[in-house]
Amino acid sequence: GDSVTQMEGPVTLSEEAFLTINCTYTATGYPSLFWYVQYPGEGLQLLLKATKADDKGSNKGFEATYRKETTSFHLEKGSVQVSDSAVYFCALSDLQGAQKLVFGQGTRLTINP
Amino acid sequence: DAGVIQSPRHEVTEMGQEVTLRCKPISGHNSLFWYRQTMMRGLELLIYFNNNVPIDDSGMPEDRFSAKMPNASFSTLKIQPSEPRDSAVYFCASSLIGGNTEAFFGQGTRLTVV
Question: Which of the residues A100, A102, A103 would you substitute to probe the B interface, choosing the one with the greatest number of B C-beta atoms within 10 Å?
Answer without folding.
Answer: A100
